[in-house]
Inverse folding.
């Protein structure tokens, strides 16, 4: 960033519409770039304020192409003391080679973890003992409250890897192994993460719905026409595991960021 850019930062895009669905605040933007820039501005402001007030932040990130624009803007945002931020991520594949670029820890290394200096980065590594890894990760997350979660919504309405067949709004676990449904696995191909369906792992570790919902504040970024029906279910369907993201309507501090393509109400 040049001196001129720091002196005259680009204006934050304004939403086309701002509305409420239950407790969920929805901001809808003209395009994906505007959505990502506006979400990053909100996340950056929240980080600065929380660090100033409490001295540190514990934060969970999603790894997905839908997050790329926002993360690129966020790491370039001024005034964030990343050395006071402890990072987690919300899911990763079981059985994928440790150096596979589509592994979520590796994706976040490329887009985020290697680009700023965190206080700590806790990677979710299933290894050869997924259940043990899940328990250890849950213990690490439970050491102190989670401040913020940055997440998306899947084509089947999942949040993290809580697909409809395995999502549990009353899950007693914080992190668990799950089987991925066919819609979820197909999305990974659609997103360009794998060359074909059979290359997508069948299982993953994921933070559960209650673990996500206990965070103080959630920022949910959902661009693209392929997410429109999932967003419709999130906003207008019953709050039920058939569309796991519908639970976001009950969180006291969650903002959903959409673009024109993903917004079922866009004209």
């Amino acid at each position: 960033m040049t001196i001129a850019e720091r002196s005259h930062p680009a204006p934050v895009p304004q939403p086309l519409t701002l509305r409420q669905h239950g407790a969920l605040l929805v901001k809808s933007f003209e395009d994906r770039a505007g959505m990502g820039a506006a979400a990053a501005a909100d996340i950056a402001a929240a980080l600065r304020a929380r660090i100033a007030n409490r001295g540190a932040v514990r934060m969970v990130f999603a790894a997905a192409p839908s997050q790329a624009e926002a993360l690129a803007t966020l790491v370039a945002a001024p005034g964030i003391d990343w050395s006071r931020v402890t990072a987690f991520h919300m899911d990763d594949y079981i059985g994928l080679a440790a150096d596979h670029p589509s592994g979520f820890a590796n994706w976040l290394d490329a887009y985020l973890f290697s680009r700023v200096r965190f206080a700590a980065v806790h990677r979710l590594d299933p290894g050869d003992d997924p259940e043990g890894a899940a328990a250890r990760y849950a213990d690490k997350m439970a050491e102190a409250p989670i401040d913020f979660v940055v997440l998306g919504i899947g084509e089947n309405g999942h949040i993290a890897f809580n697909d409809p067949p395995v999502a549990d709004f009353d899950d007693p676990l914080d992190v668990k192994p799950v089987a991925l449904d066919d819609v979820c696995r197909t999305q990974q191909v659609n997103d360009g993460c794998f060359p074909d369906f059979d290359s997508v792992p069948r299982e993953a570790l994921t933070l559960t719905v209650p673990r996500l919902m206990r965070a103080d504040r959630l920022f949910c970024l959902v661009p693209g026409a392929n997410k429109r029906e999932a967003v419709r279910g999130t906003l207008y369907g019953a709050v039920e595991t058939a569309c796991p993201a519908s639970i976001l309507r009950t969180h006291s501090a969650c903002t959903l960021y959409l673009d024109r393509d993903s917004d079922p109400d866009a004209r």
